[in-house]
Amino acid sequence: MGRWPSWGWGLTELWLVGIGTGNPEHVTLEGQRALREAAVVLIPRKGAAKEDLAELRLGILRASGSYARVIPFEMPVRDEGLPYAERVERWHDAIATRWVAALEGAPEGPVALLVWGDPGLYDSTLRIAARLDPAPRVRVVPGVTALQALTSAHAVPFNTVNGAVVVTTGRRLRDHGWPEGAGTVVVMLDGECSFQSLDPTGISIWWGGFLGMAEQVLEAGPLAEAGPKIVAARAEARAKHGWIMDTYLMRRD
């Protein structure tokens, strides 16, 4: 993990503001106030195919009444030829480097980053911020998680009575199967519909893409029946928009 020399201009505060799943109405009042009070907002760019991701962030800033200076930076691309752990470490190093470069000569004052969902749940912004040297004071403003948006969209409880819930990734589901002892499994960061690796017998699934947004798409039912529908719906939505953020919950009957 890399460390960098002094910022020079003196970054003292870094605010990580959870913005939910992209719906401005999911940003808390605390989050809106933070965006109004920030001096600078860093906006990542991920190429032309995902330009509307930056536009969503800018729309949230406008809805919050923010007058912060917006500074874009280009997101680096992960080296798929490296082992997974090393690939992620180097990617995080590269992102921190781009923050430093983008903020050169920026106005002094709090710098904000708009983080999808909640900065503390399956997001690496806090780990990237830990690379900065000298370390700024980090403030985290919680946001609506994809888990909340998903269970709300389907009007289902997050857990069963006295039942264990495991939140995991598609990679771990593929590699290790259904987590031992879990009655409910929530899967995030899954671009391969990894539920297809499971025996669907006795499993129900609730899936959602673009949760809380106008583009929201939902599917639910027994995994054997809903699984193929989800694969098709996900592929169609991704082809239409160039990207998709989705998650799903599974429960044994």
TrEMBL record:
GO terms for molecular function: precorrin-6A synthase (deacetylating) activity. It is an enzyme of class 2 (transferase). Residues 14-226 form the Tetrapyrrole methylase domain. The keyword Signal does not apply. GO terms for biological process: cobalamin biosynthetic process; methylation. Keywords: Cobalamin biosynthesis, Methyltransferase, S-adenosyl-L-methionine, Transferase. Its EC number is 2.1.1.152. It catalyses: precorrin-5 + S-adenosyl-L-methionine + H2O = precorrin-6A + acetate + S-adenosyl-L-homocysteine + 2 H(+). Pfam families: TP_methylase. InterPro entries: 4pyrrol_Mease, 4pyrrol_Methylase_sf, 4pyrrole_Mease_sub1, 4pyrrole_Mease_sub2, CobF. The keyword ATP-binding does not apply. SUPFAM superfamilies: Tetrapyrrole methylase. Pathway: Cofactor biosynthesis; adenosylcobalamin biosynthesis. This is Precorrin-6A synthase [deacetylating]. It comes from Antarctobacter heliothermus.
